Amino acid sequence: MTRIVLENLELTFRVRQHVRLTLKEFLVGQMFRRSRNPVMEVRALAGVSLTVEQGDRLGVIGHNGAGKSTLLKTLAGVYQPTGGRLTVDGRVSSLFDISLGFEPDGSGWENIAYRSYLQGETPRTVQAKKEAIAAFSELGDFLNMPVRYYSAGMLVRLAFSIATAIDPEVLLVDEVLSVGDLAFQQKARERMREMMRKAHLLVMVSHDLEAMEKCCNRAVWMDHGKMVMQGTAAEVAAAYKASAGPEAKAA
């Protein structure tokens, strides 16, 4: 059964500070072997405990820097927890940083294969999907060109078409994707709705509280790496709005 369990999850980054020194400070530091670039610890997630069951659609809200995207990337395995326990049962499909993994000198067709392999596809499954991916992207003959010559909009359209050609179990979504012209955006929104319906379990980070309430049955409110509240999407959104006032709608 698809499931996510977080038990007192911790994530701390060790960041080396780069400090500008005068010549005198440098020489004194060399004489006394003082560290010129001290290490600073940044606690990104602190004591997060949460269970997401099969069938749940969980929204994650909070201000910028609250730890929402960090939590999502930890669930995806991008970051390894430094404390606590994380259990994810089910195949994870992530929709964030969707343009990563492209080879600039490869054609669109070649990058369909490259990026698909990073998503866990095999040569056989890529062969079965590549024509549908190409058709959805609407890039036509541009797929024969190296992607280094694509516009930003073309690259994102190709990336979205590849990233969403999956059968999701655990689906992780960071923010609302806006790609291409108006007609393509309509297609993209319908594709997203279809994926959300098919996913066994969904975790979605969003700044759009109204969209989150429509898509999710549950929500968590993050603040400075800690979970402030969890409950139904409506309850958490209402509490967040009451706490942050008008700024919450745009946060």
Characteristic key phrases:
single chain; alpha/beta; 6-stranded mixed beta sheet; 3-stranded antiparallel beta sheet; 9 helices; globular
The helix content is 25-40%
Give the beta-strand count.
9
- Biggest beta-sheet profile: 6 strands, mixed
Strand content: 25-35%
Count helical runs. Answer: 9
Which spans have pLDDT < 50 for at least 5 consecutive residues?
A: none
- Topology pattern, helix = H, strand = E: EHEEHEEHHHEHEHEEHH
Instruction: Choose one word for the global shape.
Output: globular
Mean pLDDT: 86
The N- and C-terminal alpha carbons lie at a distance of: 35 Å
**Strand line-up of the largest beta sheet:** 5-6-7-3-8-9
The structure class reads alpha/beta
Integer-rounded radius of gyration: 21 Å
Give a structural overview.
The chain is 39% helix and 27% strand. A 6-stranded mixed sheet has the order 5-6-7-3-8-9, with helices on both faces. With 251 residues, it is an alpha/beta fold. The chain contains 9 helices and 9 strands. The two termini are 35 Å apart.
Compact description:
The chain is an alpha/beta fold and 251 residues long. The chain contains nine helices and nine strands.
Helices, strands, pairings?
Layout (H helix, E strand, L loop, with lengths): L2 E14 L6 H10 L6 E15 L3 E5 L6 H9 L6 E7 L2 E4 L12 H11 L4 H15 L14 H12 L6 E5 L7 H17 L2 E5 L3 H7 L2 E6 L2 E7 H12 L2 H4 L1
Parallel strand pairs: 3-7, 3-8, 5-6, 6-7
Antiparallel strand pairs: 1-2, 1-4, 8-9
Helix pairs in contact: 3-4, 3-5, 4-5
